[in-house]
Amino acid sequence: MSTVDPQQARREREARFRRTPLALAMTVLGGLLVVAAGAVGGAAIGQFVLVFRMMNLNSVFSHSPDPDTALWAAPVAVVGTLVAAAVYTRWNHRWSGRTSDVAGIGVLPLWLVGAAAFLWWTTQTQWPAPDRVGTEVDPTFGHDQAWSVGDWVWYATVWLLPALVTVFAVLACVAGGVTRLGRGSRRARLTDVLQQGSRTTGEVTAVSGATTPDAARTLLRWTFTFVDLQGVRRWVERTEGFAPGEGPELGRAVTVLYDPARPGDRKRIFASTGKGQDPEEFLRPGTT
């Protein structure tokens, strides 16, 4: 038993890190770890593709040595990515004070940048050349065979593979930028409603489930209702991600912010399952 609200105590602890040099340094370190994990992931992908590339381009009787395989790369990439992503997002949230999104570049673009950079390096400097370009050389029986169209595709993977991952990295960065613009617009609307809107108490009328302590966020479909200044009752349905212990409960009161000039505008209606003292309580993944 405790006389202190644990969620409030946690928010106060996190607030002490906001905009501090330590939080910024750890965020940068976490980002570098994500890039490094992406590089290891690129090594695992590159080794996998290289094995099949040489199997297709060289004869089964080739005297060329088989490419070295780094069996450790794949498991290290998986574990390293999970750890690096956790460090980066945790300290990013602490530095920015946000809980619903990441400030700056997201985890996926950073990971893909690391993977693309490593793949460009390893394919251009480390991958062995085939025995003879255009021909499967058979040094044992002399039955040389010309490459097929598929073999030429495998030959081109020395450029295609890093180029493809680079395209994914660029698309992830562009998608992240578009997402950040949407989040910025959402925060601007919230700031405006906090300054000029009305605050009232609503009620949860439907919820699809409950949060779980095993997940950082649980996606829930829920509905809440409130009465505006004109006495009109309104219902709002949303699908959002909630942290453990912060999900809506059927019949529970919620704090509602809305624009009295446009009470029917869903984009200018925000709800918090807590006391609504922190603006971050009104923003969650999925909030429109």
UniProtKB/TrEMBL annotation:
Region of interest (Disordered), ranges: 268-288
Residue stretches of biased makeup (Basic and acidic residues): 277-288
Organism superkingdom: Bacteria
Stretches assigned to coiled coil: none
Spans traversing the lipid bilayer: 21-50, 70-89, 101-121, 152-179
Keywords of this entry: Membrane, Transmembrane, Transmembrane helix
Name of the protein this chain belongs to: DUF3592 domain-containing protein
Organism: Curtobacterium citreum
